[in-house]
């Protein structure tokens, strides 16, 4: 993901998650993001004191969520991610019946949604075409083997038995 502008509401939400969450993993993740934004422990404590009511936390969350959805709209896959989806996406799709498209649509990833859909379709067509091509190749090789077999002895023995 590219560097994005820090929004006050997003930082406030991360601070409230860090201070009020009961899940250690969630706390660690939010602390890591806050430290990446350049805040230290004292700054986090000061900002947490300013966020007093649940209403403020909820408003901060809603604004941060809307901001994130706006950012999601223009996010794209990297080249490596596109290759992985092209090659392994059809396998995941048919094995687990999970295309990942519903999550992208719900989170407003418009560009990623189109990219993934295109990659899944083209990847599926590629694997089917590859399977057909391999089958045709081995069928061709088998027919060549059959044509190479010398059957003159068999024909001579058959003709002699009939006479």
Short structural summary:
By secondary structure, this protein is mostly helical. The chain has eight helices and no strands.
Describe this structure in words.
With 163 residues, this protein is an all-alpha fold. The chain folds into two domains: 8-72, no CATH class; 79-136, no CATH class. The protein has eight helices and no strands.
Distance between the termini: 84 Å
Number of domains: 2
Going by helix content, strand content and strand pairing, the class is: mainly alpha
- Rg, rounded, reads 30 Å
Low-confidence stretches: none
> Count of DSSP E strands?
0
What is the makeup of the main sheet? Answer: none
The overall pLDDT average reads: 82
Write the layout of secondary structure elements.
Elements: H1 8-20, H2 24-36, H3 41-50, H4 54-72, H5 79-96, H6 101-106, H7 110-148, H8 152-162
Helix pairs in contact: 1-2, 1-3, 1-4, 5-7
């Amino acid at each position: 993901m590219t560097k994005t502008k820090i929004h006050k509401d997003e930082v406030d939400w991360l601070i409230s998650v860090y201070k009020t969450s009961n899940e250690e993993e969630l706390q660690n993740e939010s602390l890591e993001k806050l430290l990446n934004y350049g805040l230290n422990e004292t700054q986090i404590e000061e900002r947490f004191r300013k966020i007093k009511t649940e209403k403020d936390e909820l408003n901060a969350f809603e604004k941060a969520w809307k901001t994130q959805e706006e950012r999601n709209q223009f996010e794209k896959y990297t080249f490596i991610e596109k290759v992985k989806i092209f090659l392994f996406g059809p396998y995941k799709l048919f094995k687990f019946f999970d295309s990942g498209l519903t999550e992208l649509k719900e989170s407003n990833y418009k560009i990623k949604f189109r990219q993934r859909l295109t990659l899944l379709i083209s990847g599926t067509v590629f694997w089917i075409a590859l399977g057909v091509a391999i089958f045709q190749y081995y069928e061709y090789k088998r027919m060549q083997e059959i044509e190479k077999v010398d059957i003159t002895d068999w024909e001579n023995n058959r003709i002699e038995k009939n006479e």
